[in-house]
Amino acid sequence: MDKRWTWVILGLLPALAHAAEGPVILGIPLDFILFAATLLGVALFHHHTLSVALTGLFVISLYKIGFTGFNEGAGVLGWLVHMQHEWVVLTNLLGLLLGFAILARHFEDSSVPHVLPRFLPDDWKGAFVLLVMVFVMSAFLDNIAAALIGGTVAASVFNRRVHIGYLAAIVAASNAGGSGSVVGDTTTTMMWIDGVAPFDVIHAYAAAIPALILFGFFAARQQHAYQPIQKDASAGVKVDWARLGIVVWILVAAIATNVMINTRFPESSDAFPFIGAAVWVAILLAIPLRKPEWSLLPDATKGSVFLLSLVVCASMMPVEKLPVASWESAFGLGFVSSVFDNIPLTALALKQGGYDWGVLAYAVGFGGSMIWFGSSAGVALSNLFPEVRSVGSWLKNGWHIALGYIIGFFIMLALAGWHPHAPHKASVPTIQSGTQVH
């Protein structure tokens, strides 16, 4: 299953290559073959994902330095300049992944997850309602935070026995919920910064909501059969309001910073990792109230370095041009984004123009849910549930995610249609590639 899926993705990637320099094998640039080999290694050796990703990064970097160079220049200097262009988004992602790991533990220790069974339905519908909650949260929060909060609640209400198919659904709900909101996903925020109106992406929900209903139904039934929801909260549980206040404080800091930078100082958004820094300032300021669980950071750092390694690999691929804008190409980009960084894809789409931004937002935002490392939300959740780090298990148990993506996409086309937008600027500045945050 892992190998077949990776070869399908390998077949899609050459469509993105354009005038690549260097060796070409069967029409595929060697850069893509090395990247596909890295992804195949991650899929097959899921107990050694970090080592595989770092090895892939090392080999691809050496190849680019020695043979093809970078858009920024050749050799080691070109690599250094390329990394300089990437550092803001990479640092932002690292700050968010580690910061929201701390936030998730604050939320767990607040005991709120333990009292939720009082308010959730007792049968499979309780699991479904939890997915809806994650979906709604992600429209306003970062999808990493929404997925981690959802995973924390699931661990509590299901006695820490959470089905892999349901974990995949939590990631999918977080990505789907952010797809129609310019503050819910990095790609839609990019569109907003670049001049796309917020209402031009909101019809992504015409696909995201049906997709949620479909995969949510199957995932909730999977979870109920595997481990039913607790019927009653633990006796004597009291909410730690100070910790809950810290959670709200961190989220408000992230959202406020995101909105302020992107509305008032958009020209500075790629100069400093403002959102990641805001999260950590909020965490540090809250230490006098409650001490964070610092012991979480080593494992969270390993997961973060794994994702960042794949992000940097993707950023070095010779993706110079997208296929001609159409609903068919947007549909295909959803599958590509399950393994390929969706930020450069979105940047290229903005530069090229001619896309329906709501359709594209759904495709690249939700598409990463189909594989566990396809979005930062999936990688973050894998730090809480290491058992998801198997492409085969994710695909076998989370089959309803891909089905939801496909059916949701065509429902959106039927309801909202395909309404491509002409380039909204006379000259669209290039946005540097970066993290895959769905």
Automatic annotation (TrEMBL):
TM regions (residue ranges): 87-107, 127-150, 162-182, 202-220, 241-259, 271-289, 301-319, 357-379, 399-418
Superkingdom to which the source organism belongs: Bacteria
Molecular functions per Gene Ontology: antiporter activity
Biological processes per GO annotation: sodium ion transport
Keywords recorded for this protein, A-Z: Membrane, Transmembrane, Transmembrane helix
Name of the molecule in the record: Citrate transporter
Organism of this sequence: Sulfuricella denitrificans (strain DSM 22764 / NBRC 105220 / skB26)
